[in-house]
Design a protein that fits this description.
- By secondary structure, this protein is α/β, with parallel strands linked by helices.
- It is 47% helix and 9% strand.
- The chain contains 15 helices and 8 strands.
- The strands form 2 sheets. Strands 1-7-8-4-3-2 form a 6-stranded parallel sheet, sandwiched between helices. The chain has a two-stranded antiparallel ribbon with strand order 5-6.
- The longest helix has 27 residues.
- The radius of gyration is 22 Å and the shape is globular.
- The chain starts with 9 loop residues before the first strand and ends with a helix.
Length: 380
């Protein structure tokens, strides 16, 4: 199916600002286009859904804090903080169905948690115990991708396969603002538009590509790039969990109905370092961080829940206890995680037996046997 390029556009506020359904002070703004994707939020199950979104965001933030602490204490080799981006991750992930497939970058730990990935598997890769923390086909979520932007090509390829198979599955791929300068991302958008692939590009614009501010590489909103490829796009407040939920639902609906790809720019902020190997105080104005703290995604949802009578001391206590329990389980699992066996380095390299790999494995085993014999003769 082909559609005239002129029908593709970027959706934003009247002044070009991101779509916002929940303001930083917790006021709900109704929107003619996006309210229809939040009927469950406004319905009988709305209170339960809103509180569950709040719980997920609080728990995700606690997972992030625990991951950072574990790395600082030498239990993890590296950790990519996502504090401040909980609304973008939780809101979008809650819109994705179990049959849809996700291709994340390395920061979507909150998405993996919503997807049901076990707590130990969230840190296995960052501890260096495995190439991938989970089985991609169990959760319909690919392993974390550290190579910037490379996974967007995988996502579009998978989406094209889904299309050729005639399935109604949609694909979502996450990346940051820095990745939009990579050739892989742009090439993937060419293929997605050309084949009208059922894929959603979800850009978490957290304002910094390591130490480079987004304004250097993007002099206009990033969402404006997508229409040039023939992809409809929307710019949403990435700290607004309802806006992220609604926009992702709309994009997935477009994908499943055969109307091709979509692009979402979620404007948010990376409140922590790029990774635990980074020191943002060397390049970031502390006043900027303070400004964004006033737009905290969890705080704004708290304000809204309080205003409609859904957040009281009992709910706060219950959610805090859940976060404490998750953090304790994550810490326990990390500290007592068994090391992989030396021969595991040969596992999962090729899908089928490979002569060169088998020869390497044989050399390795003979080396280990000889080493053990030398130790025995030496009395060690």
């Amino acid at each position: 199916m082909r559609t005239e390029v002129s029908t593709y556009h970027m959706t934003a506020g009247d002044d070009g600002s991101p779509i916002q359904l929940l303001s930083p002070d917790g006021v709900r703004h109704h929107h003619e286009r996006y309210d229809r994707y939040l009927t469950d939020v406004e319905g009988d199950d709305g209170p339960q859904l809103l509180v569950s979104l709040y719980e997920d965001m609080v728990v995700a933030r606690r997972i992030d804090a625990e991951g950072t602490a574990l790395q600082r204490q030498g239990q993890l080799g590296l950790w990519p903080p996502f504090v401040g981006q909980e609304a973008a991750q939780v809101g979008s992930a809650r819109a994705i169905s179990a049959d849809d497939f996700i291709f994340p970058s390395y920061r979507e730990i909150g998405v993996a948690y919503i997807r049901g990935v076990a707590l130990p598997d969230l840190v296995r890769q960052w501890r260096g115990n495995a190439h991938s923390g989970w089985d991609p086909f169990e959760f319909n979520m690919a392993p974390s991708q550290v190579v910037i932007g490379a996974h967007t090509l995988h996502a579009v390829g998978y989406a094209m396969g889904v299309q050729f198979d005639g399935a109604e599955t949609a694909v979502v791929t996450y990346f940051g603002d820095g990745a939009t300068s990579q050739g892989d991302v742009n090439e993937s958008m060419v293929f997605a538009a050309s084949y009208q692939a059922p894929v959603v590009f979800f850009c978490q614009n957290n304002q910094w590509a390591i130490s480079e501010p987004v304004g250097i590489q993007a002099h206009v909103p990033i969402a404006l790039r997508a229409p040039g490829f023939g992809i409809a796009s929307v710019r949403v407040d990435g700290n607004d969990v309802l806006a992220c939920l609604a926009a992702t639902r709309e994009a997935l609906e477009r994908a499943r109905s055969g109307n091709g790809p979509s692009y979402i720019e979620a404007v948010t902020y990376r409140m922590g370092p790029h990774t635990t190997a980074d020191d943002p105080t060397r390049y970031r104005d502390p006043n900027e961080l303070e400004d964004w703290k006033e737009r905290d995604p969890i705080a704004r949802l708290e304000c809204y829940l309080e205003s409609i009578g859904l957040l009281d001391d009992a709910v706060r206590t219950r959610v805090a206890a859940k976060a404490d329990t998750v953090a304790a389980e994550l810490r326990e699992a990390t500290i007592h995680m068994p090391d992989p066996a030396p021969e595991d380095v040969f596992a999962h390299v090729y899908a089928e037996p490979h002569a060169v790999l088998e020869r390497q494995r044989d050399h390795f085993e003979r080396y280990r046997t000889g080493l053990a014999g030398a130790h025995a003769e030496g009395g060690h």
